[in-house]
Design goal:
binds iron/sulfur cluster; alpha/beta; ten-stranded mixed β-sheet; two-stranded antiparallel ribbon; globular; about 45% helix; about 10% strand; about 500 residues
Length: about 500
Amino acid sequence: MKVAAAKNALLSITVNPVLKTIIGRFDKECPECGGLLLNSLRYFLGEPVSLCARCQEISGKAAFPVYELGSRFLHADREFMHKKFLDERYGESWFKGFGLMMKGVEKYGIRFPFTPAGPFEVVWNLTYQCNLKCKHCYENAGVGKRSELTTDEAKQVIDKLSKIAGVGLPALSFSGGEPLARKDFFELAAYATKRIEYVSIASNGTLLSKDNVELIKDVGIDYVEISLDGVSPQVHDEFRGVPNAFARTLDGIKNCIDAGVDTCIATVMHRNNLGELDKLIGLSKELGTRFMHFNYIPTGRAKANAQLDLTPDERFYVLETLGKEIMGLYLQQKEEEIRFGKSSVKSDRFFSTCPQYASVTRDLSHKYNASFMVEAHYAAEQGIEGVADFLGGCGAGRLYCCMEPNGDVKPCVFFPTNNQTVLGNILKDNFEDIWDNNPFLWHLRSRELLQDCIVDGKAVGCASCKDKYICGGCRARAYSYFKGDVTKPDIGCVHNKPLWEKIVGNGYL
Ligand code: SF4
Ligand code: SF4
């Protein structure tokens, strides 16, 4: 932990000034060839790119050594990068992600955890409208009338996102409210998929009729995440506040699967559905979907139902249960690769939005003499454990951010909406300026600023945790439980149990 802090200090005075200068040499716009940063990367990966003599020279002398260094640092050789960026599906997203990383090094240097020059993903709460009344809704959707962007304004937003930091956004996810409740949803989705490589949607599933799922496919949406709270109407409908929601959601899931859409069952685990976990995992396996556990965060309507939040032990149980599933798939995949040279097993199926999932899966893998880790919400790639402190767990306002239906930008969907958390508006303000300079964002990104709390004379919290650079605790949970202080501990972690007992036991909320 102290090593990463020392590394940051050392990097800022040694390597970073040099790297920034070198990248600055090839992050240029050539009147003849266009942007050299991305062109030289394609050239480096062996794509036939027509470059003028000057761009070729700068590429060879300045860009190639940096790309070589970057690939070694990420344990990804040129061949792997070529395959990932240029050959595989969604390669363009990876390519843009790497471009944002390079620009991030140029702007802010190499830091632990790392901040790219723009988010890898934006979750856009497209509308406040919703046909359900879920108890945990972070957006408090379906209540009152709040202003949203018009169709034309929403298209302007997509245009802006597609050019973010001069590179472009790798991935966009439409959420809500219920995104399908917006009448122009398919028009906007079609507009987005032409400009952004990877577009997904988070839905309550009730509007995913066969016809709508066909439209989802037609417009090119890549992934659908559908919320389900349990495997029975009693559990799901009670939480969703509307009768018959379960049947309609299950139909929506099945319609997506039948149409061959990449589908994920997403569940907020809380005290009233903990007993459903095994059944939900079973359903996901039976249907062949992915499964995503969403962390309970007392914000929006979930704040009024904070008693539903899991205890640290309960949360740990959820993470270990999911960790065993993904570990099992990973080991099966590895064994097949050793025996047959390849495997058809897809291991990237059981995820959690809890940043503690990284340390839980790492520790589990050691029990199996393996080296494997799921770096928070997004990555189960082999080799990632070597750069986990660089990727850094909680990605709020660092690897990802969110937007409200009116274009307001926030670090993460699980932060409430107020003067502190709204960083600016994508149509009215300059996004790069927000990303580069907003002090609240830099608070979230800097693990050195984390603070412990004292319980019975002992320091408890994320600041003194050895895993703070691969996890960092959910900053939105810290915000919720500590009245807006994002430097405080995530009390939902087993390591912070004494604090949970002190705060929740004392009726802090
Ligand atoms: S104490 Fe904080 S940083 Fe450490 S594992 Fe728990 S939540 Fe993560
Ligand atoms: S604050 Fe961080 S860990 Fe929590 S949900 Fe948002 S991105 Fe995930």
